[in-house]
Amino acid sequence: MPFDLASATPAQQNLPQNLTGEDFLKTIPPTAATLVKKYANGELSVTPQMTRTPQGIQLLTAITQYDPTYDATNYQKRQQTATAFAKGKQADAIRGANQALYHMGNLYNRTEDLNNTNILPAIVNPVVNYVEEKGLGDIRQGNYRQSAQAVASELRRVFAGAGGGSLAELTKWEQGFDPNAGEAQQKAHIQNGVDLLRGALGALNNQYQEGMGLNKNVNDLLSPEARHVYESLQLNQNPNVPKTPGQKMGAALTSNAPSITAEGKTSVSKSGKPIVFTNGQWEYK
Q1: Domain residue spans in the chain?
Q2: The overall pTM is greater than 0.70
Q3: Under a CB-based contact definition with an 8 Å cutoff, are residues 242 and 117 in contact?
């Protein structure tokens, strides 16, 4: 496969020579950038024969500028790691993390919907919730339990794929869900779940960096929506309610956004707030 950067190398474009990562890829043609990324990620192998040609040397130079930790002799390790995180138990763990974070964002909403009191919660909430659910047919209590079970189930998948962390801690945490706890207690419990997830992702990140290089981060494998929920929950913020105009919307709030995404088009979010399509994505007005 021919590889030629002669017309687009940083040197010939008078661009900074110290660019790496995605910043470097922006300086070369898209087709070449895709190839460089695939070689660096272990999807393709740089053979000894290739490095004996000018094009091969140019390719290797581009790869190492994109990823300074790249080592052509370590191709097999990168390939095995990339495969594991694409198809193996580690891939299951990443999918579990994405789902767990989606469910955590949902559970945060269910917690606020339930609106349990923080005053004498062990006395007031059981009575109120029982009457509302059993007597009045309220579905909020059931929705909370279902979301909690979904979070726990997906976290188990993350722990199984991470090969680290304490399942005993996870089991104890699962048992701590209480539809009758105060809202503050329930949110603190979600925060504890985020801490458990952080530990499991840390174990996965160690595996990922060992195989792919220290400049890689397993968080980059999470979906943008999952990363938004993760960052919000770590700050104990509702990931489904942006606080300021111009803030990007999470997936949970764009489910009813129109499919036509013309620049400047306006609509309303799932929560009923006005939104506008700006710079390629929906934002609050």
Answers
A1: 1-70, 85-234, 251-284
A2: no
A3: no
